[in-house]
Each structure stands twice: as structure tokens, then as C-alpha cells.
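Allow me, if you will, to draw on your knowledge of protein folds for a short while. I have a record of one protein: its chain in single-letter code and its fold written as C-alpha cells. Kindly check, if you would, that the fold set down in the C-alpha cells agrees with what the sequence suggests. Thank you for your consideration; the sequence and its C-alpha cells are set out here:
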Amino acid sequence: MSILIKRREFLRLSGFTTASLMAPRFLNAFGQQGLPPKGKVVVVLQLDGGNDGLNTVIPISNDLYHRARPKIALTAKDALGLTDDVALHPSLVGLRELYQQGQLAILNQVGYPEPNRSHFRSMDIWQTASQSDEVLHTGWIGRVLDIKQSPSWALEMDEVLSLALKGKETKGLSAGNPSRLHRDSNGPLFKQLAASHAAQHTHGMASYLYKTLAETVSHADRIFKESKSHATKAPYPNTLLGNDFKTVASLILSDMDTQVYYLSLGSFDTHVNQNQRQSNLFTQLDDAVMAFVKDMKANNRFEDILLFTFSEFGRRVAQNASGGTDHGTANNLFFISGSLKQQGLLNPLPDLGNLQDGDLTHEIDFKRVYATILENWLDNDSKAILGSSYSKLGFI
């Protein structure tokens, strides 16, 4: 019984042991080398909670916007102008600089048909690339992992692996803190579990569980050693997101074969006191992203990086009575790279005179974004991953 309890603790301690348990070909990654020179990398930044897109990319001259939000609308004096009619949130100073340099693209009115306003369900839809009436159990990145058969191809900077990185047979890796993961995997609990294997367990499933122990320790060692031996010297903000980006930068500059890094920031669920909360979160985002961009530029890797943001939904157009906004529908996405083929505002802002029950209507299905990234950046068959063909966008 004590061994069973410790095994459960072992599963809790190791962020990616779950991945190894579900991946029969887990060891394949160890025979692979790092990315080839100038290999393409995608960094996904998930804005948890439903970021308010209208106060992010602001229709600054639109009277309908100001009338719908008499207390929380941002004015031209406070916001960061992009054009005469469009501005960025005032905390996104660095992103405005990237916009001016042609290294930021903004896609507006992104969503999906029959939108769902539940955080959990809508996030599942985005992470699995399902239809709104369809439930899938594998993620859009996880289905690539099933083809690659290499868990280290995708890495999430968190203690728990998102559905986006779960395939049917192969799961990505999660390592919110490589140092702690390395320490835990080399601690007495792991050693005691390993020592008990030969003497106490002959059942096939138990044997398989203990076999994955060595694999988990190996991955922990590899990520820790690569992040330390190639640690970036660039300064990063001392925030969770800043530290995550610093680890990602170190691994990009290492011999890891990872092509997809998955990060998150939140919560953007701003029902109350939206302006202050969104400002704080955007300051963290802007500081961390700009540190990462400067680091990649200094190491001549920025042309190989595509960073994009998304949120599970936007917010309603009208403010609520608590100085915030409630769950909405369509939203905007940011794309940051040194290799954008199209920059700036890729399409018009939402038409605030054409709402559906007080919500924005989507014009771009988010699966078109995924199809574009899968085909044009990662060189994968998007139809095989997404189940249908989607017309590509021209930003990469």
C-alpha cells in the first residue's frame, strides 16, 4: 500500500510522467538530435480566461465603442496609436514598437461558429480544433506528436499538460520548472520506487510503470542540462512568464529538438475592475515578450520564431455594472516574427454596428490560423491534423 501511495505522489511530482505513461514510443526522442540550423519554432502564448479584445486592439475613433463602455473605454490620449482609428492598449508599448518595425501582425474577428461561452468548453474547442458540437480527446499539437512519435517535439511550460499537447499515443512534455523537476526526479522517492521494482512487481502494467520511471528521469535530466548549459545571458523580468520565456530561449539556443513551446498567462476573466487587471497582465506580457524578442534577435534566431497569442473567447461589447465585461465571442490574435510576409492589421476591426445579441460576429475561423501555421511554418499536412481543409492566411 505504501508503494502505491508513493507511486501516486510520483505521478504528481513529475509534470511529464503522465505523458510517458501514455506514450509507448517514448524513447524515440532520445535518438534525435537538436533542431537543424535555423529550424522553425512556434511559441504559443495562451491568454487564459477570455481576454477583452476590444480594449486590446481599440477602435479608438468609434463612437459605438465609447457609448458601449462609458467607464472602461480607453481614450486616444491614453492608448498607443497605430492608425488614426486604431490603437493598442497603453501597456503594450513593446508590441507597438514591433508593429512599427513590421514584426507584428494582428488578425481580428477570429472565432468559430456557434460559439460557447464556457471557459472549459471553449478552451477545449480551441485546444483540440474541434467543431463547436464535436468533442475530441486529442489536441491539435498532440495529433502532430502522434505522427512525429517524439514527445520532446512539443514542450509546455507548466506543471500540467494541456489537452492541446495530448495525442492518442504520444503526449508532449510539461516542465514548468526544469530545476525542480530535475531535483524531484533525482530525489529519494524516485530512487526508492526504482529499487522496489525488481523485487515487488511482476505484473505487466506495474512493470511498464516502472520502466517509464527511467525515461522520465532521462527527460528531466536532458531538459535541465540543456536549459543550464545553454542558459541565455539576456535579462528577463522576474515574473512567472518572464522566467518561462527565459527557459524557452535557453532551450531554443540548445540542442533540443523542440519545435513548439506552449505558455500561458492569466487570468483575463475580467468581470470586475477590468482596466487595472488587464493593465497588470499586459505589462507582464509586454515585458516578457520583448525580453524574448531582443534575445532572439541578438542570437540571430528571430527570423525562425513565430510567437502567437490566443484566448478562448473575447468579451461582450457593452461593459457590465462592475467595471468589467462578461464572456463574449470573437477576438484578435497577435503574431510576432522576423519573417512575417504580411504585417500590421491583417483585416478590419469588428463592425460594432453589426452585433449578434450584443456580441461580435466572427469572420475568421481559428482553424484557418492553425492550418496556416501547420503547413507554412511547421511543414505538416494540416488536413491530416485538423480533419478538413482550411484556406490558408498569408501572414507567413
